[in-house]
Amino acid sequence: SRFNNVIFQNNSGAGGISAQSHSSFHNCIFTNNNTGGTGYVGAVTITYTSGPTFINTTFTNNIADPNLEDGAGAIRTSTGGSFNLINSIVWGNSSPDYPNIYIDNDEGYESISYIMYSDIEGGVDNVVSEGDGDMIINWLEGNIEEDPLFEDITSDLNLQSLSHCIDAGTTDLE
């Protein structure tokens, strides 16, 4: 499935979505999603050898259950889940352990994820991997760790003119 220009906003319970396929998300926004006290991730859970791709996608203000360990505000993978993150922003999410991205892989599974030309709060140190399975995080060229300078992080995710994200992505998406 391909999702274009979709806003996943104000979802509660299991967070934004559970991706169990090789879907692609283009120009999407995941914002103000929360677990409602029942889950590990605010925005996207990726499981069972799924591998979605996120291009020009923003993750902000997503909240994982503050009472559960091993959660993530933006993206959490398990059981062989992987992802591609390109030209995207992951900023201002919260979880007690890993605010942005947490990769938990079980023994017997392989997880290979790619992050490029994206703005990740906390940089590569905020992309955490744990577990007994094989995990590879490819932190590729063009990634930055700069405040994206949203007009208003709670209501207007347009970028201010001084944002380091403007023209920082790639158009080579082949």
Average pLDDT, rounded to a whole number, is: 87
Helix and strand string, N-terminal first? EEEEEEEEEEEEEEEEEE
For the report, how would you describe the main beta sheet? Answer: 6 strands, parallel
**Low confidence ranges:** none
Strand content: 35-45%
Helix/strand-derived category reads: mainly beta
Approximate helicity band: under 10%
- Using the CA coordinates, give the radius of gyration: 15 Å
* Beta-strand segment tally: 18
C-alpha geometry: globular
Strand order of the largest sheet: 1-4-7-10-13-16
Distance between the termini: 18 Å
Individual helix count = 0
Topology:
Elements: E1 2-4, E2 7-9, E3 17-19, E4 24-26, E5 29-31, E6 44-46, E7 53-55, E8 58-60, E9 75-77, E10 84-86, E11 89-90, E12 101-105, E13 110-116, E14 119-120, E15 127-131, E16 134-139, E17 150-152, E18 156-159
Parallel strand pairs: 1-4, 2-5, 3-6, 4-7, 5-8, 6-9, 7-10, 8-11, 9-12, 10-13, 11-14, 12-15, 13-16
Antiparallel strand pairs: 17-18
Description:
The chain has 174 residues and is mainly β. A hairpin with a 3-residue loop joins strand 17 (150-152) and strand 18 (156-159). It is globular, with a radius of gyration of 15 Å. 0% of the residues lie in helices and 37% in strands. The protein is built from no helices and 18 strands. The mean pLDDT is 87.
